[in-house]
Design brief:
Layout lengths: L9 H8 L21 E6 L6 H17 L4 E6 L4 H13 L4 E4 L8 H9 L4 E4 L10 E5 L1 H19 L6 E6 L5 H14 L4 E7 L5 H15 L4 E6 L2 H13 L15 H9 L4 E4 L2 H16 L8 E4 L4 E7 L2 E4 L4 H5 L6 H4 L5 H6 L4
Parallel strand pairs: 1-2, 1-3, 3-4, 4-5, 5-11, 6-7, 6-8
Antiparallel strand pairs: 9-12, 10-11
Helix pairs in contact: 1-10, 2-10, 5-6, 7-8
Keywords: Signal
Subcellular location: Cell envelope
Organism: Nonomuraea mangrovi
Length: 362
């Protein structure tokens, strides 16, 4: 996989500087005392999207443990509740957290929390979602506008191949307005699709909820008519699943092309069986591990150089931006399976076995 920033020799330096990095004998070579162990607080926004509990959390925790055996990870999930996340962050600061890694429920409203951390001289890493309104230490995410462009291009390619690009209307199902990444995905999709397709209905989906996406798709089918909808731009896999459920209930015998993101297991299986056209594969391992490396470095007073900067409306934030990868049926074997994101036996269950065999996945 292409990881443009991975060539930067940060990881090795961090590993050497992590726990036990001193050389010599006697007290200088001793492991840090328990009371000196650093606490890294990780805050994730919700659990409806499979990735957070299945990948982000365990991968982050494992990398911290690898780099610093004495470091403690204080983990919190906000269940899409901004008030709950505020309480979690304030509690972590009270408990003496040394670094905050924050994937904000409402990235436009957490500047006061970041300010509390700054007052306590606690570094902050914005994880996956760009926090606005204040300066902080790092931002680690993906090129989100590019994600939307890839989704839009994939949908346009599918419609063009079917000869339906100019013959009907598409439905666009975006994510939550509280997530700035959602606005980037939307922008990227419109960059590609505007002027080339007709948008029949467009929705912003609270909480990225698959159930709400299903309701939105049902509304679109009622308003536009089943035969008028030629494609669906869904910003992630969970909502794609909701839209597909709505179309099945409406009696579609052939589903129109539908996009997704996150390479959720159910979505990969749907792509193989033909229900979903594509997903965006995000190397969550790279995102989680880079954030863990930076967090451990910050506990040691180190500030690794970032290859990019992203302006959040107030400040230029040092950033590590990873490359997204569009995955259709023919790409699953050489990306998701090859990287070990899922094993073949995890994907190829039940009715998916035959589709896996046709795709050369065994």
């Amino acid at each position: 996989m292409h990881r443009s920033w991975r060539a930067i020799p940060v990881a090795a330096a961090l590993l050497a500087a992590a726990c036990g990095g001193n050389t010599g004998s006697g007290a200088a070579a001793a492991a840090p005392k328990a009371e000196e162990a650093a606490t890294i607080a990780l805050f994730l926004p919700e659990s409806k999207t499979t990735r957070y509990e299945a990948f982000d959390r365990p991968l982050f925790e494992a990398k911290v443990k690898e780099l610093c055996a004495t470091c403690k990870v204080l983990y919190s999930n906000a269940d899409q509740d901004a008030a709950k996340q505020q309480q979690q962050v304030e509690a972590a600061l009270t408990q003496g957290a040394d670094v905050l890694v924050l994937d904000a429920v409402d990235a436009g409203a957490v500047a006061p929390l970041v300010n509390q951390a700054k007052q306590k001289k606690v570094p902050v890493i914005a994880y996956d979602r760009l926090i606005s309104g204040i300066g902080y230490d790092y931002y680690v995410s993906f090129n989100n506008v590019r994600v939307g462009e890839m989704q839009g291009q994939a949908l346009l390619d599918a419609l063009t191949a079917k000869g339906t690009a100019g013959k009907g209307e598409i439905v666009m199902i975006h994510g939550a307005t509280t997530d700035p990444s959602s606005a980037d995905y939307k922008k990227g999709a419109h960059n590609v699709l505007d002027g080339k397709v007709t948008v029949g209905r467009e929705f912003d989906t609270p909480d990225w909820s698959p159930d709400k996406a299903q309701q939105e798709m049902e509304q679109a089918i009622t308003a536009l008519g089943r035969d008028k909808i030629v494609g669906v731009l869904s910003a992630n896999d969970g909502m794609a699943g909701g839209a597909i459920a709505a179309m099945k209930r409406a009696g579609y015998t052939e589903l129109p092309p539908i996009t997704g993101q996150d390479a959720e297991l159910a979505a990969v299986q749907r792509i193989l069986t033909g229900e979903q056209y594509m997903t965006i594969y995000l190397d969550i391992r790279a995102e989680a591990e880079k954030s863990a490396e930076l967090a451990v470095a910050l506990t040691k007073g180190q500030r690794p150089a970032a290859p990019a900067k992203v302006n959040n409306g107030t400040a230029d934030i040092p950033a590590f931006l990873l490359d997204p990868i569009p995955v259709t049926k023919d790409k699953i074997k050489d990306t998701i399976v090859k990287d070990g994101f899922y094993k073949a036996e995890e994907i190829c269950t039940g009715e998916v076995k035959d589709a896996c065999a046709k795709a050369g996945i065994q």
